[in-house]
Amino acid sequence: MRIQKTIALFGSLLLLGMAVSNLILNPGEPLPLWHTILAMAFALLWGALGLKGRGRSLRRMNLLAGFLLLLCSLVEFVIPSFPLYGLMLSNPLYTYHPYIGAGVGLLVLLVSFLTRLPRPSPFTATGFLILTVFLLSACSGPSLSSLTFRYETDPELSQALSLPRVDFPSTQFLVASDLHYYDPALGTSGPSFQAYIDSDRKMLAQSQELLETLIGEIGRSPAQFVLISGDLTKDGEKPNHERLATFLATIEQGGRQVFVVPGNHDIENPDAVRYTATGTEPVPVVTPAEFAQIYQDFGYGQALARDPNSLSYLVDPVPGLWVLAIDSCDDADNLAVGEPQTNGRLTQERLDWIETMLAQAKTQKKAVLAMCHHNLMEHYDSQQKNFGEYLLDDYPQIGNMLARFGIPVIFSGHYHAQDVVLTHYDDGSVLYDVETSSLVSYPMAYRLVAIGADQTMTLRTGQIATIPSFSAQGKDFPSYALEFTQGGVEKVARQVMTDLNLFGILQMNATEIGEIVPQIGRAFIAHYGGDEQFPGGEKLKFRGLSIAGKMVIYNRAGLVLGLWQDKEPVDRNLVLNLVTGGWQALTP
After folding, report:
1. How would you classify the pairing of strands 445-451 and 430-435?
2. Which of 413, 405, 376 shows the shortest CA–CA distance to 391?
């Protein structure tokens, strides 16, 4: 009996600590508030039985709690796309909670069975599900880095860190991302093309017109150079890369240098196809070497230095300024596994080269900006939990390294949102992750950037207002794009919820799916556009749902609610102080 009391007290304290952490780290949100209060109540009940309970009541409680802890942890491991752990949090303190939960649950069950204790009384399905929710208070976050950072141990690099900051030269440039260029000659009709459009949110049929319109706006801008942060093509089709290069050449003919980096769609992508009336046909893809050759005039041929182990490079677009173009893609095994890898990762060799370049920048008194495809920090709460593949692996440590070397801003893409976030690191350094929208998804935005002699960076949002085919017919292109992108998000959300079948017995009904899907679409569109402002009403339906609906909403609410909580700073028009790290909003 003493062993049973010890297990009950230990387990209840562990669960209570997790629940209290949720309350502290997520104040003001109704879902984690009541959810964690219930978890605390369950923990206190478990602890009370541990202090006063005897015999079968204590044994049954321990068996039930151990089984639920083990079940929740196993679901987290086996079905990451529908995590029962991690309601709202993404704090790295929670990295090992599923492991702890599984370990404690297994320990309780083993002790109970080894001592030949009776099994717990049966519970109803509803009671079982409700008790399960009580225990959902742990969360996983980014793991400890497997990379070795030389600046922490190498005296030469450490000395470079101590050198004074260098002023940025005055310049103006334009940033675009996720062009997803698709040559209409590869087919824009047929059932397979329509199926692709229905499963995504990209206006592929208009991608060439959008690109041509952007080129015209670049020509009218004061930009001295252009940065394009990855996903240059739909799915890495060699004909699309070659055709895109001819369009980029027209920008350079206007006197503006273009610099590109690859995205997760661009290299050795098994999804590269053309569309026919009856299906699809594969088309050639490009290797890393072929990518560098095709874009020889757009960064790789002008590079001051190139990483021999990746498509990263370093350029100096204007005197006194270096741009570090980071290849953040993990595409080496695409063809072997038969699908493109969405996540971003730096190998140790790639990281070593980056640190060497940044140390040289410090010693040569060069100011540095960076760009890569993947995000360097979470752009909304629970992004790591729900869409971790859009973040660079080891992003907290890599971001801190860049900031320590004096990089104040990195330009990213990948998530198709016009969003800016910043991180203040413990050493006092600051880094802004300026993510730019996709050209083929709402809001079809780009960024106009100006660095002044006063060491401020002004970011303004430009947006494609129309394209020739729509203006010729007097059609409203922004409204079409908004409806198209939101419709794409809603189709995916509807399919996911329709296919979801919890424990093989519970399924959401069509009515509640129809109520929830527009709420999901509205949240994503708000985040894509930037400067999210909730217009009122209901963010996400909670009441009146079936048990299956409640389980889905309770465990995915962090995603939708997180999209509405715009992280500091504002997203579309702002001024950054490159010396202090401060910012202020600009009127459009």
Report:
1. unpaired
2. 376
**What is the fold, at CATH topology level, of the domain defined by 150-174+220-269+286-469+572-585?**
Purple Acid Phosphatase; chain A, domain 2 (3.60.21)
Q: What is the pLDDT of residues 25-70, one digit of tens each?
A: 544 444 445 556 666 777 777 777 767 666 666 767 777 777 776 7
* Helix H or strand E segment including 227: strand 225-229
Contact between 258 and 252 under an 8 Å Cβ cutoff? The reply is yes
Q: pLDDT tens, 65-100? A: 777 767 666 655 444 333 333 332 333 333 445 566
d(CA 241, CA 455): 37
Residues 6+ apart with CB under 8 A from 27: none
What six digits make up the tokens of 328? 């953040």
* Interatomic CA distance for residues 328 and 322, integer angstroms: 18
Amino acid found at 415: Y
| Burial (CB count within 10 angstroms: exposed 0-12, middle 13-18, buried 19+), residue 389 | middle
* Domains in the chain: boundaries: 2-134, 150-174+220-269+286-469+572-585, 477-564
- Helix/strand/coil for 450: strand
Q: Is the entire prediction scored with pTM above 0.85?
A: no
Q: Choose among 387, 353, 372, 399: nearest CA to 264.
A: 372
180-219 pLDDT, tens digit per residue, is 999 999 999 999 999 998 888 899 999 999 999 999 999 9
Cα–Cα distance list, 334 to 180, 201, 264, 292 (Å): 18, 22, 10, 18
- Amino acid identity at 205: A
Question: Tell me, what's the pLDDT at 548?
Answer: 73
CB-CB contact of 53 with 8 (8 Å) = yes
Q: How many separate helices (H) and strands (E) can be counted in the chain?
A: 18, 18
Q: What is the chain's length?
A: 588
Confidence of residue 18 (pLDDT cuts 50, 70, 90): low
Q: Mean per-residue pLDDT for 230-237?
A: 97
Helix 30-52 vs helix 125-134: crossing angle, to nearest 10: 100
pLDDT digits (tens, 9 = 90+) for 321-361: 999 999 999 999 999 989 999 999 999 999 999 999 999 99
CB–CB of 236/266 below 8 Å?
yes
Contact present, 114 and 48 (Cβ < 8 Å): no
DSSP string, 503-521: TTTEE--HHHHHHHHHHHH
Dist. CA 43–CA 10, nearest whole Å = 10
**Is residue 358 within 8 Å of residue 407, measured between CB atoms?**
yes
Q: How confident is the model at residue 476 (pLDDT cuts 50, 70, 90)?
A: very high
DSSP letter string, 181-204 = B--GGG-S-SHHHHHHHHTS---G
HSE toward the beta carbon, residue 232, CA cutoff 13 A: 29
CB of 437 closer than 8 Å to CB of 416: yes
